[in-house]
Amino acid sequence: MEYLRLRSGGKMPIVGYGTYLTTGLELEIALNKALEAGYRSIDTASGYGNERSIGKVLNEWISSGKVTRDELFVTTRLPIYGNRAKDVEKYIKESLKQFQLDYIDMYSIHTPFGVFQGDTTDYTKMQRDDSTDHLKIWKAMEDQVDKGLIRAIGLSNFNVRQIQKILDHCRIRPDNVQNEIHLYLQTPELIQFCQKNEITVTGYSSLGMKDGRKLLGFSWANEKLPEMLENDVVVEVAKKHRKTPAQVLLRFFVQNGVSVIPKSTNPQRLMENIRIFDFELDPGDVRALRSQDAGEGGRIVRFLFFPGITEHPEYPFPIQF
Ligand SMILES: NC(=O)c1ccc[n+]([C@@H]2O[C@H](COP(=O)([O-])OP(=O)(O)OC[C@H]3O[C@@H](n4cnc5c(N)ncnc54)[C@H](OP(=O)(O)O)[C@@H]3O)[C@@H](O)[C@H]2O)c1
């Protein structure tokens, strides 16, 4: 495993285990396999509803002496319906209760916009909260770092302008930005901006969110893009290195210092996804893979299921396509 250094003092494994759209027994079995395969960084969000299952497995591993808490790196996020300064402490404590842990390694604002939960759990019925105030939320997160409940703080789905505003006003700097980053949405400017500012970058949906995309009815903004794992350039590069397309898609970013958090509940595939440290893409491969960037056309996660969300003053993406 390779690690990215955090300004707050810790280190984050460059490959983590994604857990979106999986919970309960399926997740518990898969997470055991992932820990056996060597994953030590686990990515979730309080909105995923699986912190309890994750915590159960992690605590079993800690209490049986197979890992120490220090060796684990747990990331979770403030829910989109809790994107208010006054709710930060409540949701951090709720996450800690679900995990049955004393602290969270990385706590991030899930999205730059907020919604009201009301009395529903259905995202498509949650109304926009246009009063989202990043600086107040950030200050509330800094206070929780002081209390020791969270070790490092980060941002997710923020654009460069929004990150810069936090940098201009913060006491504790963001240690991570987690955004959709993959073959079709490479965001080189955002990556360079973060790396210049010593903020680690994590890319999500590195494999194109395969089944999840279909399940949620998402598509690339440019619907003509082929399945990323079947992209001709990726398949060619994979053949050349005797690796799988998934390994090439992950290695492409890890080699550039970007962390990845592929999700798989399949023991063979989750193993494959962490075995990416024994080969290197050459400059020709990198050039060919770069040429596949589709910019905004490659975006999958646009949060359009929230009614009227593109009208929120902090909606981060220029997605007209
Ligand atoms: N911050 C945010 O707003 C945000 C948004 C989305 C995701 N995330 C995080 O990022 C993580 C990863 O993104 P994601 O879950 O959207 O999708 P992903 O990791 O790009 O893709 C997961 C899909 O790919 C399949 N897969 C995994 N490994 C494979 C392999 N080696 N070969 C072929 N297929 C493979 C999985 O199926 P099997 O399970 O059957 O292998 C699953 O269908 C999430 O789980 C979540 O933790 C964060």
Name the features.
single chain; 321 residues; alpha/beta; TIM Barrel; 8-stranded parallel sheet; two-stranded antiparallel ribbon; 12 strands; binds NADP nicotinamide-adenine-dinucleotide phosphate
Please explain how this structure is put together.
It is a single chain. The protein is α/β, with parallel strands linked by helices and 321 residues long. It has a single domain, classed as TIM Barrel (Alpha-Beta Barrel). It has 11 helices and 12 strands. The protein has helices at 24-37, 51-63, 88-99, 134-146, 160-169, 188-196, 210-215, 232-241, 245-254, 267-274, 283-290, and strands spanning 3-5, 11-13, 17-18, 41-43, 73-78, 104-109, 114-116, 127-129, 150-156, 176-180, 200-204, 259-260. An 8-stranded parallel beta sheet has the order 3-4-5-6-9-10-11-12. Helix 1 crosses helix 10 and helix 2 (51-63) packs across helix 3. The radius of gyration is 19 Å and the shape is globular. The model has no long low-confidence stretch (mean pLDDT 97). The chain binds NADP nicotinamide-adenine-dinucleotide phosphate. NADP nicotinamide-adenine-dinucleotide phosphate (NAP) binds next to helix 7 and helix 10. InterPro entries: AKR, Aldo/ket_reductase_CS, NAD(P)_OxRdtase_dom_sf, NADP_OxRdtase_dom. This is NADP-dependent oxidoreductase domain,Aldo/keto reductase, conserved site,Aldo/keto reductase. One of its GO terms (molecular function) is oxidoreductase activity. Substrate binds at residue 110.
